[in-house]
From TrEMBL:
Pfam families: LVIVD
Name of protein: LVIVD repeat-containing protein
PROSITE patterns, sorted: TAT
Superkingdom, natural source: Archaea
Biological classification of the source: Archaea, Methanobacteriati, Methanobacteriota, Stenosarchaea group, Halobacteria
Classification via SUPFAM superfamilies: Quinoprotein alcohol dehydrogenase-like (SSF50998)
Region feature (Disordered): 403-432
Amino acid sequence: MVREPTLSRRTVLESLAAVGAIGSVGVASAAPSDGSDDQLRLFSEQAVGDARELVTQQNYAYVATTDGMAVVDWRNPRRPELVAKIEASPPHEIGGDDEGSVGGILDVKVDGDVAAMAHNGGTGITTVDVSDPANPQELAFYDDVDSTGVHNCFLYEGHAYLTVGDSRETPFDYTGVEIVDISDPSNPELAAIWRLRDELPGFAAAGVNPNHDIYVQDDLVYNAFWDAGVVVLDASDPSDPQLVSQFGEAPEADTPMGDDFPYERYLTNPGNAHYVQPSPDGDYTYVGDETFPNAFEEPENDTYGGVRIFDTRDWDDVEQVGFVSPPDADAFRTSHNFDVTANRLHTSWYDGGVQVHDVTDPSDPEKLASYRTDDTSFWAAVRERGFTLASDIGGGLVVLHDDRGRARSPGFDGDGPPEDPGIDVSTTGDGT
């Protein structure tokens, strides 16, 4: 039974991960989960209001802020500095549809001198000139073809890849990916559309398989299609993407949903491929599953989603070889956005914190370090310059290190720890 207030289908489809809509996002009082040696430490921090997705490009961090984008200069990792924050203009002011809305900016991506803000509740993406990161300038708005919003995007070699989920007219009829030529970011143009219905019609017709997130590497487009698992496309010719493989689908992913939307099936295990990223060499693909068992009184499956690891060296014989379980915490702790390096996996788990695993052997991930406090909830974790950076939802950017820093909660509301940090900071040492 779904708890009141009942979730509307539209709310589920358009803002499922606008976080916190279903799960708690922290409660007051902060303390590291324990004092063991495996704890990541808070090295530094920078407040960023309404923080959501986080990406880095060397010395700068780009943070989605629901109404736009923030840029943090962390050339000095001890003193990250908020150097820019822009609000996304209404689409009609920068070349978009007069009837378009700004929408919730939950995702931002960057490639070289160009960034893009994805309009989750709007109708496309805004391209941004970040040649001077401290002075970002909006360039243009691209209207997507038919979806109700673009939840996520990715920039790769002069093209933007947009997730398409629910259609404005026919639910899931257009679920897929749009590829946009942004070689001239001031004049984005549609290059191609790939739709699930054209190659995997049963999964499109099931009505529970939006394209939620996307990652591009070595001309391969990795799409997280919720219960339909991961769909990989070859975009060596961005104007003509070709199906390469599909894997990791849930058992009922191609079963029609019937007259009533299957909330519990949609929000709980199995399935729920939410985020995907390949290893740098492409041999393995990591798939994060986002589940919401806490939305139901007595769900049939009450497990939180973890990270599945697939051997993808042979696209005709993909198999799951490893799994990273959610943190052992009494909190909303499903998998969210993560980052994969040659031998490390840096993960975020909402209220479950941030973790780092050794994945030298992907079939046997080993947890190395973690960071969690009772008043933080993390959207994304990324690896850059020897640090783990994470976005605390609504709070800002934290810079974590496995040796240096303090075992404490960030103090985004002031110059020091929160008023009730739950630990004696004077006894923790700064580790430097």
